[in-house]
Amino acid sequence: MTDTAWFTEARFGLFVHWGLYAIPARRGNNTGTSEWVQRHEHSHTDAYARYLRYFDPDRYDPAAWAEEAWDAGMRYAVLTTKHHDGFCLWDSALTDFKATNTPAGRDLVREFTDAFRSRGFRIGFYHSLIDWHHPEFPVDGKHPMDENEEFKAAESGRDITKYADYLHGQVRELLTGYGRIDVMWFDYSYPDQPGVWGGKGAADWRSEELLATVRELQPSILVNDRLDVPGDFITPEQVQLAGQLKRDGRPVVWEACQTMNGDWGYNRDNLAFKPAGQLVRMLIDTVANGGNLLLNTGPTARGTLEKASVERLRAVGEWMELHERSIRGAGPSTYRPPADARYTRRGDRLYLHLFSWPMRHIHLPGLAGAVEHAQMLQDGSEVLFQDTTTVDGHPDDPALSDEGSLTLHLPENRPETAVPVVELFLRA
Between the CA atoms of 246, 249, 253 and 256, what dihedral angle is there, to the nearest 10 degrees? Predict the structure, then answer.
């Protein structure tokens, strides 16, 4: 079984969606998300390919990206090597639809991997199983030309087996040309998706064979769950889970991929960025349920991170600087947290994340007699507590918690941080 220890230790990663779709920088017909603009506008391959002439990321500085991500507390990064439009950020020998044939004129994947690896990151590659540019990828209900009857008739002889050869060949290029790769993030299979005709899955991608190739080339790599065959981790998208993710009653390794503003790629007009405090709470909630958070940014066509994204990364990083040990290497707890709070646990430390600030006291069910010391994590200042539900001589007050609770006496003033955390030292 593949070792996932580094992955669950890291807990927080950067997702980067970048490609030609950064030029239109719109959703298209006000539908879906921006990296699907070719599909939403039903653009012919030739019409969309004109963006090759204008893709010139003259301000691309992956070392600067890596610094921002590292300071935010992220420890692995996943880059879109190719999205559904088929455009490749590396110098693939199997296609002309690539970054080296744009004004950029160079392998952008190599610069990314070199910069992020040098900073200390684990490296992941996103790779689309779908490819709207390839001449042998059959038109289906997800294709940009799915409503063009003339096009469909003319292209009815497309052969998915030839496309699968191309897919396997490109994966081989990626996994042999850039040193150790830690994550292969495929996207995605849709064999039985409601309302989508011509869906594709494991048989089309030859997923078992592809997975075997991936593991042969990179024995330590982690592979996600979107090949329509089991992988090493599960990838819920744009949702917050209500509890631990389990299969057959057992917890599994999982990673929530989330956007900052609803778009994966750059969308010039989408200013609906989540507040930094919400992003911090998303991270805490994910780890409290045993998962990782892969938080996305969509760089501009000139290769810069959006100002709003950078501001949020820095704000999350400010919180992580003082509260990292409640996230890194932490996971869920069997203790039940009080309302509007989350627990994470690492060894003999239990971390109480307070999404709202209680008035004076908070009662922790089941923890009476279990804690030897408590402190505010941001400054190490002691938090007094008592192993009883009695507060100020009122043992029968119905507002107090159940018998067996531990009562914390919180500071008068809420700490000036996105989410205050109490660190509880558990008795052996």
Answer: 0
Q: At what angle do helices 160-176 and 207-217 cross, to 10 degrees?
A: 10
Encoding tokens for residue 58?
A: 């003259």
Task: Identify whether 188 is preceded by a cis peptide bond (ω within 30 of 0).
Answer: yes
* pLDDT band at residue 389 under the 50/70/90 scheme: low
Largest CA distance in the chain: 84
Q: Give the model confidence (pLDDT) of 17-63 as tens digits.
A: 999 999 999 998 878 899 999 999 999 999 999 999 999 999 999 99
Q: Which residues contact 32 (CB under 8 A, 6 or more apart)?
A: 39, 40
CA distance 382 to 272: 39
> Can you name the residues that pair with 373 across neighbouring β-strands?
425
Q: How far is CA 321 from CA 81, 234, 324, in A?
A: 31, 28, 6
3-state secondary structure of 357: coil
Cβ neighbour number for residue 10 with a 10 Å cutoff: 19
Q: Which helix (H) or strand (E) holds 206?
A: none
pLDDT of residue 140: 98
Report the distance separating Cα 270 and Cα 185, nearest Å.
Answer: 26
The encoded tokens of residue 112 equal 């990314």
The alpha carbon torsion through 217, 220, 224, 227 (nearest 10 deg) reads 30
Alpha-carbon radius of gyration of the chain: 24
pTM greater than 0.70 (yes/no): yes
Q: What are phi and psi of 89, to 5 degrees?
A: -85, -5
